[in-house]
Structure prediction request, 365 residues.
Amino acid sequence: MPQNPARRVLVLAHTGRQDAISAALQATAALADEGLSTVMLEQDIRAIREAADEPDGFAPLTLGVDCALTDVALGLVLGGDGSVLRAADFVRGHGVPLLAVNLGHVGFLAESERTDLHRTVQAIADEAYVVIERMALDVVVRVDGHEVARTWALNEASVEKSNRERMLEVVVSVDDSPLTAFGCDGVVLATPTGSTAYAFSAGGPVVWPGVEALLFVPISAHALFAKPCVVGPRSTIAVDVMTRTRETGVLWCDGRRTVELPPQARVEVSRSAEPVRLARLNPTPFAERLVRKFRLPTEGWRGPVTAEERDAAAGYAVETVEPRHAGPRPEVVAPATASLPVLSPEELRRHREEGRPWRRSEEGS
Prediction:
């Protein structure tokens, strides 16, 4: 009898790391204890069995053999942000939500840490999670007006120089309107999710995930005006590789997918109609996640205003201060002024005929 698809969990692990293999074995055992079936890639199953010397009780379903992605209810990602990006690429087009357990460094896309793996599996079994959607990018590459490549990105699409010794000359435009041109090491085109990744390292702003926007951030631009910009979600940002230096570039999407960019290549980035679905165990405010992941100093923060403090502040009067120039200034005496002379039609005609400056003292001469 076929199993209920809602009880199948796809486990994606970074099998090149021993801690990820250990976490995968623990997750598989915990999922089985909760009555859930583990689904894994064939190469991951083989790598774990070789690394762990045929572990007892390790018998996951093989994706593509025992079931398909359409039979999977959730993807459990064990690794860092790179593993999440790999998993998002793998489930693209199938709508499978991803829940990540951080085994890396920052792990901004991860929902829980390694020590919370058992609690995470319990939440999956109880379906105690919510699914949110993160904006993604559609990326199109054109050469001489012809489309040569089409891909996507969750974090960013970066146009970078391919030659270390030279700069890349680019023109950035928004909605087919040229905005700026400069030489640079590259340009990062990012989503709000990617604003804490490569774009952040390049000096871009941190954008809350709930903000619908696109970013472009120059990398080491040799220009007076090369500031990061935030544009609307319905806009299209384009980067044209100029032919002035005959330098080539390279397009990287999420650091995984790459396209060579010859001179006259054009990269167009717009909002994708298909977002990435992420599972969340608790509605942690983004500001709290930002502080925790980046270890921002918050010592000395007094916390929110209490009701008592608010009531005490209500007793203070608010004083309105007018600008100095708006008030009366009796100590200032207006200087005497003389009226400006007004030329009569005859005087103006004579002035034009003689072709010389007119002076009031000449009147009546």
Q: What stands out?
A: The chain has two domains: 5-134, 137-273.
